[in-house]
Amino acid sequence: MAEPLGRSREEAAWVETLRGDCEPEHHWRHRREFLLRNAGGSPAGDSGALQRLVSLSMVWANHVFLGCRYPLSVMEKVLEMAEGIKVTDAPAHTTRDELVAKKG
C-alpha cells in the first residue's frame, strides 16, 4: 500500500502519533491530511516548526469542525495551508453575529 500523499513510512508513522485520544475518525482523517501536506520534510526536523504545525492543524480542525474563530492573520494562514483539502462532513455553524443580523 502506498504511503499517503507520497510520504515516507517514517512521516506516515510520525503523523499517526499526533492523533488525539478523543479525536473522532472524520476529524482525524482531515487533520492528518493537513499535517502531511504541510510537514515539508522529515519529522525529525526542527521541533519548534513541528510544534507550530501541530498547533495550526488543531486551529484549522477546530475552525472547520467546531466553528471556532481566531485572529484574522491566523485564519488566513491556516486556510492557505489547508487549500485543496476537501471536507464534506463538516457541520454548518451559525455565528452570534449572523444570528443578530437575522433578527434585525
Oligomeric nature of the chains? single chain
Let me know the number of strands.
Answer: 0
- The class by helix and strand makeup works out as mainly alpha
How many structurally independent domains? 1
The profile of the biggest β sheet is:
none
> What order do the helices and strands follow?
HHHHH
**Beta-strand content:** under 5%
Q: What percent of the residues sit in helical stretches (DSSP H or I)?
A: 55-70%
Overall residue-averaged pLDDT value: 85
Question: Which labels suit this protein?
Answer:
58% helix, 5 helices, 0% strand, 104 residues, mainly alpha
Describe this structure in words.
The chain is mainly alpha-helical and 104 residues long. It has one domain. It is 58% helix and 0% strand. The chain is built from 5 helices and no strands. α3 (47-66) packs across α4. It is elongated, with a radius of gyration of 15 Å. The mean pLDDT is 85. InterPro entries: XTBD (IPR021859). Residues 15-103 form the XRN2-binding (XTBD) domain. This is XRN2-binding (XTBD) domain-containing protein. Belongs to the CARF family. Pfam families: XTBD.
